[in-house]
Design brief:
Length: about 375
C-alpha cells in the first residue's frame, strides 16, 4: 500500500503543522481517511466547503467545462466569465459594481492594496490587531501575527495596527497619507471576534470625511457563513472594496476583489494569468447558484443558534466564552486549544484553532442537526 504521508514528507516544503490523518474523500459535512475512518468536518477547509464536500452541481460544472475549455487569456472575452460575473453581482452589495478575479484571497488583498494606492496617491494603511489577510508580501504586511511576519521583514511599509472595535484608537492614527483602512467584519484567524456595528459605521463615516478607502475582507466570513450572504449586511455599511475567496467556487481555487465606482484602474496596471479562468468561473456559477437556491444564509443562522443553545445548556467549566455568528463559531477556552483539537480528532471531529485558546468551528452550511448534536456531545466529553 502506498504510504501517502511518507511521500508528502519527502517532497513537500514542510511548512504545515500536520494532523496524522490522510483525508481521501468527502461528502456533505463528512470526510473519510485512507483507513476508512469517518469524520464530521467542523472546519470545511477553513470556510471553503460552505456548500459541502462532493457537491454534485459543482462537480458536474467542472467536469463539463474541463472537457470544453479550461483556460482563456484575459485579453479575450469568455462566455463562462461573463455568466459568472453576472451571477456574482446578483448577490454582491449593490454599490460594488466591478470585480478583479483572482485565484485566492491573498491575491484579492494584494489587488486591493495596489488599487488603494493607485487611486488615492497615498501610501499608508490601517489594519487591526489580530487581523489576518494572507501571507504574500502585501497581504502579510496587513496581517498582525508576529510569528507570520518574522523572517520576512522588511515588509511593505506604511501599515499601522490598532485595536479591533476601538474607534478612538483608529482615529488617532489617521493622517493625510492614509490611503485605506482594511478590516474583517469578523476576525477569523484572530479568534472569531465579531465586529461592532456602531464601530464600523463610525469607521465608514471617518473614511468619507477623510477621503480614505474602506476595504473589507470577507474571505472567511462571506458567502452565507454568518447568516447573511456577506457579513457587512449585519453592519449596515457600504464599502469601497471587498475581498472574497474561499467558498466562492465550492472549493475550487478562486477569489475576487469587488470594487465600487470610486476605483479606477488603467489597462495593463494589474493582471493575472489564471484569474477568472473558465473552469473556476463554471465552479463559481454552480456554487453561488446552490447557495441561493438553498438559501444557505438561513441554514447558517438557524443552525448557529441551535448549536449555541445546545452548547450553553451544558455550562462546561473549561469554556470561558462562546462567540457565534451564523456558523462562524469561536469557543474560547481557559486552557490551550491544541490538546482539545487532537482529542476531538480522535473522536471523529475535525476542528481548527484561532490563536492559542480559541477553538474555531466552520462547518459546511449543509451540516445536519444530527451531526451538530454529535459535535456538542463530543465537546461535552472533552471539555467536561
Amino acid at each position: 500500500m502506498t504510504n501517502y504521508k511518507e511521500l508528502i514528507q519527502k517532497y513537500e516544503v514542510d511548512v504545515y503543522p500536520r494532523r496524522e490523518v490522510v483525508l481521501v474523500k468527502g461528502k456533505g459535512a463528512r470526510l473519510w481517511d485512507d483507513q476508512g475512518n469517518e469524520y464530521i468536518d467542523m472546519a470545511a477547509g477553513i470556510s471553503v466547503a460552505n456548500i459541502g464536500h462532493g457537491n454534485e452541481k459543482v462537480a458536474q460544472a467542472i467536469s463539463e467545462q474541463a472537457a470544453t475549455l479550461i483556460t482563456c487569456p484575459n485579453t479575450f472575452y469568455n462566455d463562462k466569465k461573463a455568466l459568472f460575473l453576472e451571477k456574482l453581482f446578483e448577490i454582491a452589495p449593490k454599490n460594488l459594481t466591478r470585480a478583479f478575479l483572482t485565484n485566492s484571497g491573498t491575491e484579492a488583498v494584494e489587488a486591493a492594496i495596489k488599487f488603494a494606492r493607485l487611486n488615492s496617491g497615498k501610501t499608508k494603511f490601517i489594519a487591526a490587531m489580530k487581523g489576518f489577510h494572507g501571507r504574500t508580501m502585501g497581504a502579510l504586511s496587513a496581517t498582525y501575527k508576529k510569528e507570520y511576519r518574522e523572517g520576512f521583514e522588511p515588509l511593505v511599509p506604511g501599515f499601522t495596527f490598532v485595536p479591533y472595535n476601538n474607534f478612538e484608537k483608529l482615529a488617532e492614527v489617521v493622517d493625510n497619507d492614509t490611503a485605506a483602512i482594511i478590516l474583517e467584519p469578523v476576525q477569523g484567524e484572530g479568534g472569531i471576534n465579531i465586529g461592532n456595528k456602531e464601530y464600523f459605521q463610525k469607521v465608514r463615516q471617518l473614511c468619507d470625511e477623510k477621503n480614505i478607502f474602506l476595504i473589507i475582507d470577507e474571505i472567511q466570513s462571506g458567502f452565507c457563513r454568518t447568516g447573511k450572504m456577506f457579513a457587512i449586511e449585519h453592519l449596515g455599511i457600504e464599502v469601497d472594496m471587498m475581498t472574497v475567496a474561499k467558498s466562492i467556487a465550492g472549493g475550487f481555487p478562486m477569489g475576487a476583489l469587488l470594487c465600487s465606482d470610486k476605483i479606477k484602474v488603467e489597462k495593463s496596471k494589474h493582471g493575472s494569468t489564471f484569474g477568472g479562468n473558465p473552469l473556476a468561473c463554471s465552479a463559481g456559477i454552480a456554487s453561488i447558484g446552490f447557495m441561493t437556491e438553498n438559501k444557505l444564509w438561513e441554514e447558517a443562522e438557524a443552525k448557529g443558534k441551535y448549536f449555541k443553545e445546545k452548547l450553553e445548556k451544558l455550562q462546561l467549566s473549561k469554556i470561558r466564552e462562546i462567540r457565534i455568528i451564523g456558523l462562524m463559531i469561536g469557543i474560547e477556552l481557559k486552557d490551550k486549544v491544541q490538546p482539545v483539537i487532537i482529542e476531538l480528532l480522535s473522536k471523529g471531529i475535525i476542528s481548527l484553532p484561532a490563536g492559542t485558546t480559541v477553538l474555531r468551528m466552520l462547518p459546511p452550511l449543509v451540516i445536519s442537526y444530527e451531526d451538530l448534536d454529535t459535535v456538542v456531545e463530543k465537546l461535552a466529553e472533552v471539555l467536561k
